Amino acid sequence: MKLGRLTVVGVGLIGGSFALALKRAGAVERVVGLGRSRANLDRALALGVIDEIAPDAASACLGADLVLLAVPVAQTAPMLRQLAPHLPSDCVVTDGGSTKQDVVAAAQAELGARLPYFVPAHPIAGAEQSGVEAASAGLYDGRLVVTTPLPQTAASAVRMAEAAWTACGARVVQLTPQRHDEVFAAVSHLPHALAFTLVEMIAARPEAQQLFSFAGAGFRDFTRIASSSPEMWRDICIANRPALLREIEAFRAALEALAQHLRAGDAQALARLFERARDARDSWLQSMGAR
Amino acid sequence: MKLGRLTVVGVGLIGGSFALALKRAGAVERVVGLGRSRANLDRALALGVIDEIAPDAASACLGADLVLLAVPVAQTAPMLRQLAPHLPSDCVVTDGGSTKQDVVAAAQAELGARLPYFVPAHPIAGAEQSGVEAASAGLYDGRLVVTTPLPQTAASAVRMAEAAWTACGARVVQLTPQRHDEVFAAVSHLPHALAFTLVEMIAARPEAQQLFSFAGAGFRDFTRIASSSPEMWRDICIANRPALLREIEAFRAALEALAQHLRAGDAQALARLFERARDARDSWLQSMGAR
């Protein structure tokens, strides 16, 4: 796969790493960047992440073979609206958003006849850092990218977008947009909500400073994802509200079950619960290492 | 500080690292190990963590200057009961338990006239590994050790125990047993309960394998503490029940507040919550780095 012209909309961690990975693979000739912040685009140019800054959506689309949309998911609709009139007829569009049903709805509303050339994608390669400074050519190496093509998505567009993600070093897996959002509500959005909630709860207390002074390595790792971008996570939580609310309810019930064991002083039930969790996590870690 | 004879009861991660750290500091002449598993003691001897295996409590106490109790907290009382009749008159006892009110109650019940020589301690240096194989001389370097002396604890005993922990590379801070347990319910026991609960909740679902297959680095770090010893954490949770139950209730309420913002679609409130969490965590990380 060799792209002539790649346009990256939103040159941050996800967009910048996509450009760098395709350059590393020799899979792209020229990368054009479009974004809200001129300072960030200048930095991306200086770092060699992009080769050219587009002054507007029309210039960004000119001659593009592939467009990657890598903006907070709530900006998907307005951004597609700007791009749609200018997309070349054979240009494929993919994205890097962490939710997919809302992105698909935005594409359906904004892309019209161009919808078959949109290939929704979610690279599982977040980091608590953000911005082009954090971008790296190796971010996607060995990582999963979930694509959620629609029945009307063109097979050629799916092939092209998936080939680009594969050239970045990723493994591609397909899900429906709905199943994607259910799965990530459980294994990503809920943990983020829990980590943000714990840190905020402690920070809001009068004795917060004393409490934090005794927090150790376990707390640091447990809360790492609470250093993620508030703007990005606001959008993800709002976009995936129904599934996330179901997971929060399930978690509150599971936590209440643990509290019941505690109130009853049922040491055996607690030990069994902790053992099941440890065994499940250890098996998961092994399967991660094996693949 | 130079100890002639140190007795480590429970030669695992905490006890073994204590012995290795004091040996590294040249602060101990001979280390005696006592434990439930002969195979583990043989391993500790082969690794040079201990110099001698004690066949029973009486031999373990013979000539000891300092005894470290490093067993799951529920074993504190039965173990002190075995040791008490054999402790030399000037021998100091300290421990490594993650809860302190229950450990203090056990010492009050079992040590009688020897109570002033018991210095309750909690090194903040857990790891999800356990066992003597994981022990290292550097485990306590730069870490906090909380001691919770009682009004009747002898000042000379506190000095000796704290000097030993300091020789291990740790910084010592004092709290009351009650405040200790409140603080660690919030910053350690609650996060462990949340991590165990999340993994167990997902593992219990029919589609667990699919869910785990999409879990990424954020999930891995968030749940790292769910690979901790189920036996140890069962004991901690039971020992610190009242404070942990209060924290679980507070967390369920905080999570419900987040759910309310979600139900209301209040993106601004969500963003503010996430920002407060991120800023608090980033400040905490900076203060950790600074000290």
List strands and helices in order, with pairings:
Two copies of one chain form a homodimer.
Chain A: E1 3-9, H1 13-24, E2 28-34, H2 38-46, E3 52-53, H3 57-61, E4 66-69, H4 76-83, E5 92-95, H5 101-110, E6 118-119, E7 121-123, E8 144-147, H6 155-167, E9 171-174, H7 177-203, H8 208-213, H9 217-222, H10 230-239, H11 241-263, H12 267-290
Parallel strand pairs in A: 1-2, 1-4, 2-3, 4-5, 5-6, 8-9
Antiparallel strand pairs in A: 7-8
Helix pairs in contact in A: 4-5, 7-11
Please provide a written account of the structure.
Two copies of one chain form a homodimer. With 291 residues, the first copy, chain A, is an alpha/beta fold. Chain A contains twelve helices and nine strands. In chain A, the strands form two sheets. Chain A has a six-stranded parallel β-sheet. Chain A has a three-stranded mixed β-sheet with strand order 7-8-9, with helices on one face. The mean pLDDT of chain A is 96.
In angstroms, what separates the terminal alpha carbons of chain A? Answer: 25 Å
Helix percentage of chain A: 40-55%
The oligomeric state of the chains shown is homodimer
Count interface residues per chain for the largest interface: A-B, 88 and 88 residues
**Overall morphology of chain A:** elongated
Main-sheet strand order of chain A equals 3-2-1-4-5-6
Helices of chain A, by number, come to: 12
Number of distinct beta strands of chain A: 9
Q: Strand-residue fraction of chain A? A: 5-15%
Task: List the helices and strands of chain A in order.
Answer: EHEHEHEHEHEEEHEHHHHHH
Outline the low-pLDDT stretches of chain A. none
Q: Mind summarizing the main beta sheet of chain A?
A: 6 strands, parallel
Return Rg of chain A in Å. 21 Å
> Structural class, from helix and strand content of chain A?
alpha/beta
Average residue pLDDT of chain A? 96
